[in-house]
Prior knowledge:
The chain is built from seven helices and eleven strands. It has about 250 residues and is of the alpha/beta class.
Amino acid sequence: MNHIISNGEKGQGLLVRERADVRISGLTKRFGDGPAVLDHLSLNIPAGEFVALLGRSGSGKSTLLRTLAGLDPVEYGDVVRPTAVSVVFQESRLLPWRRVWQNVVLGQKGPEAKKRALQVLTEVGLVHRVDAWPLTLSGGEAQRVALARALVRDPSFLMLDEPFAALDALTRIQMQALVLTLWRKHQCTTLLVTHDVDEALVLADRVLVLEHGKIKVDLPVPLSRPRRHAHPVFEELRSELLQALGVQNS
Length: 250
Ligand SMILES: Nc1ncnc2c1ncn2[C@@H]1O[C@H](COP(=O)(O)OP(=O)(O)OP(=O)(O)O)[C@@H](O)[C@H]1O
């Protein structure tokens, strides 16, 4: 059943429904009297697609994601997205006074909840830390718990806001591989916000660049996975994206 969460002054606002595709049309967002951060932005993400969103700092990536998640209101325009969504942020946002498994199934108690936590913690390779306290986890482990907490809700739309930005290079590569495995298994529509062009090209079916409140570049990645950085098409796409971001390609 469709359910309108917030009625826009113009457009329908945010509409949630069972289907797993995402449709955005004419989305406009400004803070106070400032310029439009999102300016009549339109975008469709078919069910199951993995999309990466790049853009310079301050270009509105997090604002778009927060709006899709329902954390910021839709004031102008229409957003239609699946009911079941999960978001993973750069920081794991775990409650330090709850054990790992309790953080995963926040609010649920009893043996069934713990069993479910064990299932998803196994998927993210962290079942051995099920009873640990968050403060004893490494940064990578904490993000695995955040991923498990996202998965436990069985999302049909998964949003990742620079989830690996604070991790070292090796851990980031391991986490990228994990995200691909989880995406394949769960087949959820996925939107990854990142600053890392190579990360976008390794993971996504399609890479977007946000600029002046609009999608400036919408680039399909016609490469099978696993992807090699040295592949000529990979290098071509990297150059194109770096140019779009105004970065010199050395
Ligand atoms: N709550 C807010 N109040 C006022 N301005 C805001 C608010 N949130 C974001 N902005 C402004 O909106 C613009 C876009 O911010 P946003 O965080 O979406 O960009 P971003 O592309 O995610 O940046 P970064 O890559 O640095 O994380 C920025 O100019 C920011 O200052």
